[in-house]
Amino acid sequence: MAKRIQFARTGGSEVLEFVDVTPADPASGEVRVRNEAVGLNFIDIYFRTGLYPVPGLPSGLGTEGAGVVDAVGEGVSHLKEGDRVAYAQGPLGAYGEFHVLPADKVVVLPNAITSETAAASMLKGLTVQYLLRQACPLEGGETILWHAAAGGVGSIACQWARALGVKLIGTVSSPEKAELAKANGAWATIDYTREDVVERVRELTNGEMCDVVYDSVGKDTWVTSLDCLKSRSLMVSFGNASGPVEGVNLGILNQKGSLFVTRPSLNGYADSRERLEMMCRDLFDMLGSGKVTVDIGQRFALADAGKAQDALAGRKTTGSTILLP
Ligand code: NDP
């Protein structure tokens, strides 16, 4: 038997159960990974609460982890038992000692990247890869606004932006988080609990405003984010930490300066094996070169996944959080 987290109904963190299961054998095209570390992500909370529909209940949870290939299904040629691997996509169920998933979602890790680092950076780092390098390919010299700059995705974004020569203005909710974002390479920070974000962006940019805004907070920050943009520039809305953006009248994009808006996801960018490998190469190069280091702010036992999710939803975490089976 093996341990995993599952939930039979959507709701608060109390719906998460720590149960014994018999690990499934991989079907054709699948592998089974013995997780050494599991990544905690905000999207896990969206599934648990029902904001994102769950394919069927009871269900496992989590899509990010790293460990060792433990069994290989028929027809899988690029992986073998014993390979050190990581993944950030595929069916829910990463919160467990074992996870069975399609082999084409699984990549072999370079020796220098530990399972803990991989579990803390695959989903978040690949997200930053597509946001900075694909959704709007930045060349250096741009000024961008990034909400939740001291969080998991934000901490990687600060470092990657610095490496690209992009001026990242990060929003945060405390002086400690501001310090962390600065240490990670944010060009400037705004504590939105004390400062007016639009006015501070105006001051910091000498009235020019931002080339791109990256907004994962959603409902609470939508209008503020649009107000921080230059005319004809891009709003990237990529998350719902405060709730989803709903009921938008597209006319607002006209009123705020002929703006563009995109609502991207990792699965929309890493939608083929070739694209996943290309994005992983870029991420692993950034990690290998030391331009991006992964800050694991919190480690929780797998059994405490509910506590970990409450800490993440309660803005009590910084950097990445991992669960240890
Ligand atoms: P974080 O570690 O960034 O945690 C979320 C942070 O958001 C909090 O620490 C808090 O920072 C800020 N926040 C602002 N308002 C709220 C609120 N009402 N409730 C909770 N937090 C709030 O999480 P992740 O790194 O896991 O994810 C960051 C975001 O990126 C999430 O919204 C997630 O859904 C999104 N995402 C999107 C992906 C995509 O492809 N579309 C992929 C991966 C992540 P502070 O205290 O400084 O305000």
TrEMBL record:
The Enoyl reductase (ER) domain, residue ranges: 11-323
Superkingdom of source: Bacteria
Documented EC number(s): 1.6.5.5
InterPro entries, sorted: ADH-like_C, ADH-like_N, ER, GroES-like_sf, NAD(P)-bd_dom_sf, QOR-like, Quin_OxRdtase/zeta-crystal_CS
Keywords, ordered alphabetically: NADP, Oxidoreductase
Any GO MF annotation of the entry: quinone reductase (NADPH) activity
Classification via Gene3D superfamilies: Medium-chain alcohol dehydrogenases, catalytic domain (3.90.180.10), NAD(P)-binding Rossmann-like Domain (3.40.50.720)
Family matches, as Pfam families: ADH_N, ADH_zinc_N
SMART domains, A to Z: PKS_ER
Name of the protein in its database record: NADPH:quinone reductase
Protein source organism: Billgrantia bachuensis
